[in-house]
Specification:
By secondary structure, the chain is mainly α. The protein has one domain (13-121). 58% of the residues lie in helices and 3% in strands. It has helices spanning 13-19, 21-30, 33-36, 46-56, 59-82, 88-107, and strands at residues 114-115, 120-121. It has a two-stranded antiparallel sheet. Helix 2 packs parallel to helix 6 (88-107) and helix 5 (59-82) crosses helix 6. The relative contact order is 0.12.
Length: 131
């Protein structure tokens, strides 16, 4: 396969997510360049790259990296299926916006609901088949 953005190189996981300069620009917009850039020369595969981040960095950083990789994947699919090209700015900003929204939602999430009058926790029940 050929790189979707540059029409060069054999496209593999490393190149698609790390090797392409488009992705490096995404890192700056997402604010992850200082975390990701030093690993480029020290790991040999995308799997090692991701596992090193998950092992060495905070959950916050690992989550942001995962979301950025997802946005890159989504942008690649948009090129293939819709002939729609995204800039690195768009990909990075979309990832950052999605991360901030996820953080906001989880900040307001409440634990299980307790009915105070009956001291009973509400639980999900499977519906009967006729429903």
């Amino acid at each position: 396969m050929i790189c979707l953005w540059y029409d060069t190189n054999v496209e593999d996981g490393w190149h698609a997510f790390v090797g392409s300069t488009v992705e490096h620009k995404n890192w700056y917009w997402e604010g992850l360049s200082t975390v990701l850039q030093p690993r480029v020369g020290t790991v040999r595969s995308l799997v090692d790259f991701v596992f090193d981040i998950c092992y060495s960095e905070s959950r916050d950083i690992a989550g942001r990296v995962a979301l950025l990789l997802w946005q890159i994947w989504d942008a690649c699919n948009d090129v293939i299926w819709n002939d729609a090209y995204h800039t690195s700015t768009t990909i990075g900003r979309t990832a950052l916006d999605a991360w901030q929204q996820w953080q906001e939602v989880h900040k307001h999430r409440s634990p299980s609901v307790v009915q105070h009058g009956q001291n009973r926790v509400q639980v999900w029940e499977k519906l009967n088949e006729s429903w």
